[in-house]
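Observation: inputs received (chain + adenosine-5'-triphosphate).
Thought: call the complex predictor directly.
Action: predict_structure
Action Input:
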Amino acid sequence: MNTPKIVKTRAELKAAMAAANPGSLGFVPTMGALHSGHASLFKAAREENELVVISVFVNELQFNDANDYAKYPRQLDADVQLAAAAGVDIVFAPEASEIYHAGLPLVKLDSGALGEMYEGASRPGHFDGMLAVVAKLLHLADPRRGEYRAYFGQKDAQQLVLIRRMVADLDYPVELRAVPIVRSDKGLALSSRNALLSEEEKEAALVLHRSIQLIAGRAARNEPLYIEDAIGMYQMEPLVELDYFVVVNPDTLQELAFNCQDTPFTGEGLVLVAAKVGNVRLIDNQPI
Ligand SMILES: Nc1ncnc2c1ncn2[C@@H]1O[C@H](COP(=O)(O)OP(=O)(O)OP(=O)(O)O)[C@@H](O)[C@H]1O
Ligand SMILES: CC(C)(CO)[C@@H](O)C(=O)[O-]
Ligand code: BAL
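Observation:
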């Protein structure tokens, strides 16, 4: 197993990149507390690139809830071990002062109407803060302007759509790769915040996947979706508070008319769900 180089500053990262001088770079930004979902991103990057760089940075700017930020799991030593096993070459683990070296950004990225829907409605400012750090990290990770790919999980579907728009709108010289959701044996989408759930809450959280599966099954059979049946499943789970359950266009995330109608499902869609389990907000989705 290789031992990744851990770099903490921009200068160290730049020097490590210059020393490696790779023909191709795969970059995976994360907030740490790594699990097998992250590992699948690292492995995808490993397969396609000479050098794999990841970042571990809990970006305060994308948290609208101070408690969520304070409680976010942090475990750099374990993260480095997981990164090593997945073949990562460089772990960039900066302090906030290293990222926001000139203070908090005065010039901001605006995630627009898309950033105010779904996750953005429940976490005001989240997507602007997320774009701010992804924009910076994409620059910092690759000072060379060579063959460059960045990897994101399909689990954060709205995030991925916004990053695609930013990369297209601002002409970032990077190819984006989307990696499918990795789940537990029982179907729970892996997430760093799952570590904050009790065993009972983890069982209750399985309703997210179950409810999506109900709708995905109907979609596969071209039946009417009757989304209210999926929403009804949440009433049986006192530990789970549903935020939204919608079927949307996978590219624009606009709600599809199938949501409340008797029409048989045809075409393509994306089921998006978010719910609070205890104090922990979870999201999940599935293309249909
Ligand atoms: N289960 C998963 N399958 C595939 N990709 C994932 C999974 N979990 C996270 N990712 C991806 O890993 C990258 C880093 O995510 P992040 O560090 O926020 O972890 P996370 O598990 O999503 O944590 P949380 O949802 O609690 O913030 C993102 O691109 C995210 O979509
Ligand atoms: C992309 C990201 C690393 C930016 O902080 C974060 O939003 C995440 O982990 O999904
Ligand atoms: N994985 C998305 C990052 C966040 O929840 O802030």
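Thought: report the result.
Final Answer: The chain has two domains: 5-179, 192-287. The mean pLDDT is 95.
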